[in-house]
Amino acid sequence: MLRGLPLLALLLLLVLPAPLGTPAAAVVAPVAAPATTGEPAARPGAARERFAVVDHNVQKRWPALRTALRLARQSNARAVTLQEVCAWQVARLRRAHPGWTVAWLPVRRTDGCRAPGAAGGRAATGNVAVWTEAPDGTTTTPVFDDQLGSTWHQGLACVTWGDRPFRRVCSTHLLSSSIPRRVRLRARQAADVHRTAAPWTRRGDLVVVAGDLNDAPRSRPLGWLYGPSTGGRGRFREVAPGPAGDDTECRCAVATRDGGARLDYVFFSDNRARRSARHGLRVVRTASDHHALVGWFEVDLRRGSGRS
Hints:
Helix content is about 20%, strand content about 25%. Residues about 1-45 have low confidence and may be disordered.
């Protein structure tokens, strides 16, 4: 069509602006090369987000508690779960972090929990759950139906935030000892955790349960937490490396205490932590003889996608 036009006319056609009324699609603008950030590009339509939690049985030791909070900052953890925390430590935590939501369940009065410089005998120790992003979350502290005695109040300290789906993170400490009666009682407490979380997961909420569960992965009590894919009857997936150190599911004997015992866990509800989701666990020694856990899962928090 342009054959036979003088060279000057061809050059004018190339440099003059398009006439008014030319369709936008007919004018091709230059496209800049994509910027290089050094990070992998987001997957198209990706709906999962990394959700990190720090858990630690601090054994009433302030240096161990401070280490757990430092790990939370370093890992951008959205929540922290603690066990064997003294009442004075909870008060100090709340004063130091007024922008956090702190749930506190006093479990029992015990020795070694007096505030520095305070006189007197026993003081309260218990479970703590923290949402580190805002002070306006809600707190609940359901107590187990079965207790060792009238002076015990074991149960869950939970923080809840967000819009549907809600995010719920709970700290717990099950009864210890290998005495048969206590093992049976521990199993009933684990069943209470299962029953408490069931209506939350049915509504589609993300539920995280973490703490000192005082038993081995393949024990009968923990069968109330592990899901069917690992031989349990629960609705949770544990944050733990597989047999080869990968992210496959297992009921693994990862040492979480001095001496090599496995007592401490971080569980995510399987309605939001899918079987194919990546996850990771870091175990850190502290001033406590329990180790701190930094656990995370890639969770799916889209509305309506996690009903069970």
